[in-house]
Amino acid sequence: MFRNNHAANNGINLSYIPPQIVNGQTMVQPEEKEVQAEEDKWKCALIAYVIGEYLGYNTMTRYISLNWTAVAKPDVYLHKEGYYIVKFQNLNDMNEILYIGPYTINNGPIILKQWCPDFDFGSKFLTDIPLWVNFPKLPLNYWGVGSLSRIASAIGVPLFAEECTTKQTRISYARMLIEVNVTKPIPQQITVMDPNGVTFMQEVVLEWRPQYCDKCQKIRHQCQAAAQTQEEPPRKRRPWKKVTQTWQYKGPIQSQEQVREQEPKQMVKENSSHSIAKKGNQEIE
After folding, report:
1. Is the domain of 221 the same as that of 133?
2. Lowest-confidence region among 35-39, 137-141, 195-199, 206-210
3. By residue range, what is the domain housing residue 138?
4. Residue 282: inside a domain
5. In terms of Cα–Cα distance, which of 181, 49, 70 is closest to 115?
């Protein structure tokens, strides 16, 4: 039936495997090795979502080809929910792109997360966002892996410490990528206690944090309803001026017939005066 069918020749043949009936419900249980084999195909993939306007597939692939030149060209897949799956050749390429960020396209920040089997694009993906966090003037004796992990855990879930922090080639501040819940307040300072019980306040600086609307539960959004409810400053009214009316005498009231009778007489006077003036000019000449 499928002979000489191009779509069938490029596909795979399926077979019937009877499902199980458990408590009157149909249940399907795939084999672990098959599931693991498919997971291995996507373990080098990143989930990419652009905050703000929707970007087409061509725009996204063009951006990747122009800006992610340090790695081999990845495969890009567009999901109908508005995010992309970017599949790299290996884990090194994936980490290279993930840890060099952050990235922006058309002034819209790009959220990058590593793909996982239980990934679900929903409210959690748009609230738990990897952000780069700086810890200025962090004492050098707290730059160990354990100390950095504990300090970063006060902000969120630690993911990665950049190369300059790991190799201590820049010691003015420590920089770490931390998955932060943007719906919760992020402290600007945290208390650190040394092994002797002495405490100090460590400053926390976020390189970028998206706007979050508590009412609409959306990032990079300001609710218009909240803005409209703000009280406007009262407008200044002009001082009220009292208007008074006065009566002025403009002469006796004439009827329409009297006005008509005076108009021809006035015209005759004007014509006569005009002729006299004309004769006087001729005599002068």
Report:
1. yes
2. 206-210
3. 128-225
4. no
5. 49
